[in-house]
Specification:
By secondary structure, the protein is α/β, with parallel strands linked by helices. It has two domains: 281 residues, NAD(P)-binding Rossmann-like Domain (Rossmann fold, 3-Layer(aba) Sandwich), CATH 3.40.50.720; 199 residues, N-(1-d-carboxylethyl)-l-norvaline Dehydrogenase, domain 2, CATH 1.10.1040. Helices cover 44% and strands 11% of the residues. It is built from 21 helices and eleven strands. A five-stranded parallel beta sheet has the order 5-2-1-6-7. Helix 10 crosses helix 13 and helix 17 packs across helix 20. It holds the Pfam family Mannitol_dh_C. It comes from Leucobacter chromiisoli.
Length: 494
C-alpha cells in the first residue's frame, strides 16, 4: 500500500495517522531545507498541535534548494507530502506515526519564481530553515556575512536572485514591501549557537550587498529568534523502508527515524505571530543562550569527542563508540571537567544528569547512527561545538587537555587512515586543505593546528599546544587505544 491521502483510512490501527482534515490546512510557514531533522522535529511539533485542533493555518510549505534535496520530489509529490516517523527505543521497541503537517513541497531550481511567490504570499508568516551550520556563509569569529560560497556569489552577481535562501527571501521581501504586506519571521532551526543572530547577519548582510534600501526595510520588519533544537535523526536506510513494509504493509519512499528524545527551546520574538508551540512542549523563553550552550557543549561537543577516536579504532556506529571502555571515560572527563564548568547555571537544570542522558541517547543501538555522519563537515562543527569550550577554559587559566586530545584526534583522522592501516574517506568542505596539512604533521607537528581560519591563535598558546602535541604524537606512534588509555585517567593533582 502506497502512502498518500487516499490510503490513510486503510492503514492498520497500530500506526498513528493525522486526526485532522488535511484538506483544510492552510500554509503559514515556508521551510527551506526539508530533510530528516526538520521532519523529525519542527514538522512533528506542528503535527502534534494539529492533532489537537490547533495551528491548522500554520501548515508547512517545503522548499528544496540544493541538489541533495532533489530526490525528495519523487517522494513528497506522490505521497501528498505525507511520511512516516518511527521512534526507535533502546530496548528495540519501534513506534511509528504518519505526519501530515507539510502540505506542499517544491524543489526551487525547477521553478525559482514559484518558490519566491510562496515566501511572498501574505499568509506566510514564518520562514524556517535547516540549511546546515555552514550554509549561512558567516564568519565564525567576527559574525560577519562572507558571501563566499558559489551559490551565494552567483546570486550576488545575477540580475535576479534565485539560487540561495538569502536570494529567494530577498526577492520575496521586495514583493511584500511593494505590496505593503509587511515582514515576517526568519526562524533558524540549525544546530549552532546564536542561530537567530547568524541568520540575521546572513540575510541582512546579503541584502545590504544587493539592495541597501530593501535591507533597511528588512531590518525594521523581520525578526530572527534564537532557538536550541535537539534530536538525533539518522539518514533513512533501506532497512527503515523494509521495516514499514513488513510491519504495516506500507510503502513509504522517504520515511524518517529518530530517537524518542526531542527538545526545542525558542526565543519569543516573532514579527507576524506564531503557532502555539508551547502547547506541544516547546520551551518558550526570553533568553536561549544558556540552553544553547548546554546542548552544544554537552551534546554536540560529545559527538565530536567520540567521533574521530571511534573512526580510528574501526567503529562504524555512534553506539559502538559510546560503549567502548576506553572512549566512555574520556567522554565523562570532557563533560564533567571541561564542558560543564564553562556553563552558566540554569534554574532546575542538572548538567551532570543532562550529560549522562546524552550518553544514554547516543548509546541507543537501534538508531544505527554512523560515525561517518558525525565526522562530516568537521571544519564547521569543531569551531562551534568544541573550540568555545577550549577558549573559555584557557581564558579562565584552566586546563583543556581532553579538548586538545579531541582536536588531535581530528588531525590524526584527517590523515585518512585508521589504526588498522585501512584507508577511509574524509568528508569535509575543506577536505583537500585539511588532508594536506595532516599529511605534513609528521615533519611539522603544528601544521594542522596552525590553520588560523579554524583554530585562531591556539598554535601560539603553550597551555594548549603541550597537551595537543602529546596526544597527537601518541596517536601517530602508539594509536588511539593507548592514547585513550592514558587520557581517561585525570592527571595527578589535576
Amino acid at each position: 500500500m502506497e502512502l498518500n491521502d487516499g490510503s490513510l483510512e486503510r492503514l492498520p490501527e497500530r500506526i498513528a495517522r493525522p486526526r485532522y482534515d488535511r484538506a483544510g490546512l492552510a500554509p503559514g510557514i515556508v521551510h527551506i531545507g526539508v530533510g530528516n531533522f526538520m521532519r523529525a522535529h519542527h514538522a512533528l511539533y506542528l503535527d502534534d498541535l494539529m492533532n489537537r485542533g490547533l495551528a491548522l493555518d500554520w501548515a508547512i510549505s517545503g522548499i528544496g534548494l540544493i541538489s541533495p534535496n532533489a530526490p525528495a520530489r519523487t517522494a513528497m509529490g506522490p505521497q501528498d507530502c505525507l511520511y512516516t516517523l518511527t521512534e526507535k527505543h533502546p530496548d528495540g521497541r519501534c513506534e511509528s506515526r504518519v505526519v501530515g503537517s507539510i502540505s506542499e513541497y517544491h524543489y526551487a531550481p525547477d521553478d525559482p519564481e514559484l518558490a519566491i511567490s510562496r515566501i511572498a504570499r501574505p499568509e506566510t508568516r514564518i520562514v524556517s530553515l535547516t540549511i546546515t551550520e555552514g550554509g549561512y556563509d558567516v564568519d565564525d569569529r567576527t559574525g560577519e556575512f562572507l558571501g563566499r560560497s558559489a551559490i551565494v556569489r552567483a546570486d550576488l552577481e545575477a540580475e535576479r536572485c534565485t539560487r540561495s535562501a538569502f536570494g529567494l527571501v530577498l526577492e520575496a521581501m521586495r514583493i511584500r514591501r511593494d505590496r505593503g504586506d509587511g515582514g515576517l519571521t526568519v526562524m533558524s532551526c540549525d544546530n549552532m549557537q546564536g542561530n537567530g543572530r547568524v541568520a540575521q547577519a546572513a540575510f541582512l548582510g546579503f541584502a545590504r550587498r544587493r539592495d541597501p534600501d530593501l535591507a533597511a526595510w528588512m531590518e525594521r520588519n523581520l525578526s530572527f529568534p534564537n532557538s536550541m533544537v535537539d534530536r538525533v535523526a539518522p539518514r533513512t536506510s533501506d532497512a527503515d523502508r523494509a521495516h514499514l513494509l513488513e510491519r504495516y504493509g506500507l510503502d513509504d519512499r522517504w520515511p524518517v527515524t529518530a530517537e524518542p528524545f526531542r527538545q526545542w527551546v525558542l526565543e519569543d520574538d516573532f514579527a507576524a505571530g506564531r503557532p502555539p508551540y508551547e502547547e506541544a512542549g516547546v520551551e518558550i523563553v526570553d533568553d536561549v543562550v544558556p540552553y544553547e550552550l548546554m546542548k552544544l557543549r554537552l551534546a554536540n561537543g560529545t559527538h565530536q569527542a567520540l567521533a574521530y577516536f571511534g573512526r580510528l579504532l574501526g567503529h562504524t556506529y555512534v553506539h559502538e563508540a559510546i560503549v567502548d571502555p576506553d572512549i566512555r571515560p574520556v567522554l565523562l572527563r570532557y563533560i564533567d571537567e571541561e564542558a560543564i564548568p564553562t556553563l552558566a547555571p540554569i534554574p532546575g537544570q542538572d548538567f551532570r544528569a543532562f550529560g549522562r542522558t546524552v550518553l544514554e541517547r547516543f548509546g541507543n543501538p537501534q538508531l544505527q547512527d554512523t560515525l561517518v555522519r558525525i565526522c562530516e563537515e568537521t571544519s564547521d562543527r569543531i569551531p562551534k561545538f568544541l573550540l568555545p569550550v577550549v577558549f573559555d577554559r584557557l581564558g579562565a587559566d584552566e586546563r583543556a587537555d581532553v579538548c586538545a586530545a579531541v582536536v588531535a584526534s581530528w588531525a590524526r583522522y584527517a590523515e585518512g587512515v585508521g589504526d588498522d592501516g585501512e584507508p577511509f574517506e574524509v568528508r569535509d568542505p575543506l577536505r583537500e586543505q585539511l588532508m594536506e596539512r595532516a599529511g605534513r604533521q609528521g615533519e611539522e607537528p603544528l601544521a594542522f593546528l596552525g590553520n588560523r581560519e579554524i583554530f585562531g591563535d591556539l598554535a601560539d598558546r603553550p597551555e594548549f599546544v603541550g597537551p595537543y602535541l602529546r596526544a597527537l604524537t601518541s596517536l601517530r606512534e602508539r594509536g588511539a587505544r593507548e592514547t585513550l588509555g592514558e587520557l581517561k585517567r585525570p592527571p595527578s593533582g589535576g
